[in-house]
Amino acid sequence: MGGNELKNSEDIKINEKSAIQFICEERKRSITSGITTTYEFKLENKGKEKDTVNLKMHLIYSTSKGDECPEWGVRLNYGREVWEVSRTKILEREFELKAGGSKDLALEIKSPRGARYGDKLTVMVTGTSRNDPVLSDSLTIATTARQTLLAVKTSIGHEKSVADSIASRAKDTDVFSILSPATLRGYLLLEAMNSDRLQDIVKGLRRARGVVEGMTTMDEISHFLTPKPLVSSISEGDIVELIAGPFKGEKARVRQIDESKEEITVELFETVVPIPVTVRGDSVRVLEREK
User: Fold this and answer.
1) What are phi and psi of 169, to 5 degrees?
2) Which domains can be identified in the chain, with CATH numbers?
């Protein structure tokens, strides 16, 4: 029994000597090409003695295309100092931590402008105690390249032809979709990987005026993706012209709107007795708004 008590006592002393631990809330993100994201975390010494921690980086690149992956930017900020990991190729550094102390660290990851969809960088960070090399902790941070939303400026009225030309040129490239909203004149919206490649695709196309600088977000274009009801721009009392059906060309006043069926009921002007006629919301053109 005495031997066991001694063994347990020794274990306690070792554990009290040092205990290295990483604290990180978010370890996985997806970013667009050319963008930098920052992961903030802490390196803690939970032991009761001052310790020197060997911090080691292991960078793992992967690509969905099977060819060579462009190099990502990796740097670690700690206080006012910066460790340029990817530029210097130095993958190890030591940090001193007082007993019960911690160090705030910020790992910056920059996706290369030439990144393809699904390209990925995994950074494995390992901290090892010098007091007791058996004591260590590791942290894995994964960052994946994703597409972004870009805009191309066109001549007004030629949005569709430019969209068709881009679609023809963009085969087997990182252009995933093209949107030409009817209400957005002079512009196209594209889902692509980066503006550099898109600029190469657009270059020389007739009626194309170039790629708009900067990126947009899904929130900014969501109203183009949600179709409005056919009757959304029509109000009771409006004067309209029927543009389809047996009464095409007739003028009428809107008397009732059924949004669920996207229909309106109108009364024709050119009749002795007012005749209510129910038509679809896209069968009329508003001539005069109800004041």
Assistant:
1) -80, -25
2) 17-146 (2.60.40.10), 148-225 (3.30.70.940), 239-288 (2.30.30.30)
Long-range pairs for 88-93 at CB < 8 Å and ≥24 separation? 91/56, 91/57, 91/58, 91/59, 92/54, 92/55, 92/56, 92/57, 93/54, 93/55
Q: What is the pLDDT of residues 75-95, one digit of tens each?
A: 999 989 999 999 999 999 999
| Pairing label, strands 120-129, 136-146 | antiparallel
Q: What is the pLDDT of residues 209-261, one digit of tens each?
A: 999 988 887 778 877 777 777 788 889 999 999 998 888 999 999 999 998 88
DSSP annotation of 49 reads S
Tokens of 284: 């009329």
Structure tokens at 81: 């100092």
User: Residue 280 to residues 145, 177, 201, 263, 269: CA-CA distances in angstroms?
Assistant: 45, 31, 41, 4, 18
Q: Please state, in angstroms and rounded to a whole number, the distance separating the CA atoms of residues 71 and 86.
A: 8
pTM of the model: 0.67
Amino acid type, 282: D
Show the beta-strand stretches assigned E in the chain: 20-24, 28-32, 36-45, 51-62, 73-78, 81-84, 92-97, 102-110, 120-129, 136-146, 148-154, 175-179, 187-192, 208-211, 239-242, 251-258, 263-268, 276-280, 284-288
Token output for 237: 């009392």
